Amino acid sequence: MSSDLGPAAHSHPRVGLLGTGPWARRTHAPALAAHAGSEFAGVWGRRPEAAAELAREYGVKVYEDPDALFADCDAVAFALPPDVQAPLAVRAAAAGCHLLLDKPVATGVEDARAVADAVARHRVASVVFLTLRFAEPTAGWVAEQAGRAGWFTAAAHWLGAVFPPDGTPSAYADSPWRKEKGGLWDVGPHALSVLIPILGEVTAVSATRGPSDVVQLALRHASGAASTAVLSLGAPRAAAGVGLELRGTEGVRALPDWSDVPGAYGRALDALLTAARTGVPDVRGAEFGARLTEILAEAEAQLPVPERAI
């Protein structure tokens, strides 16, 4: 992996942002602007007027061409739909940019694998922003539980109210890919990102569909443990929530609460810049992202077509 952060950029590498939606405005841009170890260099978006507005807000350059942004930056952060992100990430890697990716990396295995292969081929660093792996205290909790042996089973749920039954959607509801792919693809990566480091690689997966976009996964892990994950973006507001419980020889452990998402994004950028500087790949990089896509695609292939959209 290359450790080149650009000429005179070792203390303040330049980071560009691709995307202008709610996630970019609420998390990515504020975190990039606040990050002490890098320079927020500019914004590109598929909607030029939105990109110009976001760039003005932070006093950075607006780009009409993503390749021009790649040429000016040492690293790029993605806030785009997964299947828009993937081909642009391949181009960015070819331009020598380190990649701070959103999850899922892609919803197709071939596209996700192309990103991982481009990272390896062009020797750039990559990190996938999986919130629970960077937020505190959840990131520390995952590392602590991964160091324990004897886990027998785990049960996870991530029930979002992005498309609740009462018809009052959240700020993230104007997202065609979320409407199409549902909770399996949007929040499934979060659940897997915790279960895998603690219980081991997924060796078998089965999936069933419930009401709305609810999907339940049953997983077998390399450690021998079994786990389940219930995923949805269409939960009633009163039923929404996130949780994960482990059970094993040392008892029961529950995932702690967290809230500092912009801070978590800053730590993800820290991890990317560390990987770029040291040349040591981060375990939460594009290769891990590709593996998550493989598991989710295998699960999706088992599901019947839903009777109605979210």
Quick structural summary:
With 310 residues, the chain is α/β, with parallel strands linked by helices.
Task: Characterise this structure.
This protein is of the alpha/beta class. The protein has helices spanning 22-34, 48-58, 66-72, 82-94, 109-122, 138-146, 176-186, 188-199, 261-278, 286-301; strands spanning 14-18, 39-44, 61-63, 75-78, 98-101, 126-128, 151-159, 202-209, 215-221, 226-232, 241-248, 251-254. It folds into two domains: 14-132 and 262-284, NAD(P)-binding Rossmann-like Domain (Rossmann fold, 3-Layer(aba) Sandwich), CATH 3.40.50; 136-257, Dihydrodipicolinate Reductase, domain 2 (2-Layer Sandwich). It has a six-stranded parallel beta sheet, with helices on both faces. The chain has a six-stranded mixed beta sheet with strand order 8-9-10-7-11-12. Strand 1, helix 1 (22-34) and strand 2 form a beta-alpha-beta unit. Helix 6 runs parallel beside helix 8.
Tally of domains: 2
Which class do the helix and strand fractions yield?
Answer: alpha/beta
> Strand order of the main beta sheet, please?
3-2-1-4-5-6
Element order: H for helix, E for strand: EHEHEHEHEHEHEHHEEEEEHH
In total, the number of strands is: 12
Beta-strand portion reads 15-25%
| Chain oligomer state | single chain
Annotated CATH topology of the largest domain = Rossmann fold
